[in-house]
Amino acid sequence: MTFSSLGLGEPILRAVGEQGYDTPTPIQLQAIPAVLAGGDLLAAAQTGTGKTAAFTLPLLQRLSQGKPARNARGQVVPRVLVLVPTRELAAQVADNIRDYGKHLPLRSMVMFGGVGMQPQVDALRRGVDIVVATPGRMLDHHGQRNLDLSAIDTLVLDEADRMLDMGFIHDIRKVLALLPAKRQNLLFSATFSDDIKALANSLLDRPQVIEVARRNVAAATVRQTVHPVGRERKRELLSHLVREHNWFQVLVFMRTKHGANRLAEQLRTDGIGADAIHGNKSQGARTRALADFKSGKLQVLVATDIAARGIDIDQLPLVVNYELPNVPEDYVHRIGRTGRAGAEGQAISLVCVDELAFLRDIERLIGRSVERSLIAGFEPDPQERAQPIRVGRTVIGGGKAGGARRADAPRAQGARGDAGARHHGRARNEGQPRRDGSSSRSGGGIARRNAPRG
Ligand code: AMP
User: Fold this and answer.
1) Is the CB of residue 306 below 6 angstroms from any atom belonging to ligand 1?
2) What is the pLDDT of residue 350?
3) Which residue is closest in CA terms to ligand 1's atom 16?
């Protein structure tokens, strides 16, 4: 099955091809025709299944076939609203929309809390077809009359379970009351609690129900180890390990493109053959690096999560998390690169004090603790204190408890549910225990009978 048989137009197919996708994932196969047909959708899918493209591709297709919506002043106002729980996810979804829609004359924007309102107001004034937003900030814009919702004909709730966990139910209800009654609703959730079922029942009209298999199973054949290390000594430790064990074909993960570039450079300075692969590199450069890596010419390939997902290399002997991901599912994807098809693989994480909360989240998701092993001469200084971790201008974790901002700063505290209050001041990614002590995203295995009947 190919993307072209799913009813998507040439500009989208071209963009998808440029992303390097050739085969639709299972959720894309099911969701794309369903969304194109215009009905409501209830999809049980987690990060890593290709769910974002599953809704954005058909929505871009539908938008491109229609006319822009305009208000009385002639400004283009949004037709699609995508609500997400966190700013990281908002940025990711918006990036995907930009990538997939790059050959279409459509405009999209992202709005989330914790950053200035004005650039978002300016973007709205210039006109947008698609808004990706966290609920709090979206309501702020609506309250200040920056955002006209009267032309919204499709609402997407992405990671709805997480939104409810974060106490956004009141905000979601408020948003629903502001939208035109006649619209298409798409609800994506990793798990189906009673709360999600209640939301789906009230929101969706005879939805098509789609589910795809859970993917958060850390491969049993992967040996996982954490090497605790000082923040500033990771590079030395990595070079030491590569030399000491004469490692080849090591895939090293970083959070940012900039970090990936810098590390590759530093490794080269240390005399280790290394290159970086990420979205800012030309397709040619990426292909070359990958070919050198596969052939063994390049000892170390440094990649960001996004770049790594697009590359087809399986059964690597070794994956190194130079930085732990703040999204625990990314850890599972990363280590899934090794130890496939029964081959023994190894996943090593260099973890500094800033990342301990990420490690706790990961261990909760995979349901076990990862063995710690100190490397002589690289033991972390017990006096070292956690510092905030920034990706661009966003603080994603680290620092003292309560030091990092939560994903979408709460506006009216009293208006939120208990869970919202409990999460105040801390991002989910900081290892916040849930009400039931589990991770809502490790649930998987969603039974069809759990879905509301149409
Ligand atoms: P998501 O589940 O939406 O977070 O997507 C997971 C990752 O898979 C993203 O990095 C996408 O770029 C990538 N992806 C989505 N669809 C495909 C596809 N059909 N083929 C290969 N990669 C894909």
Assistant:
1) yes
2) 98
3) 50
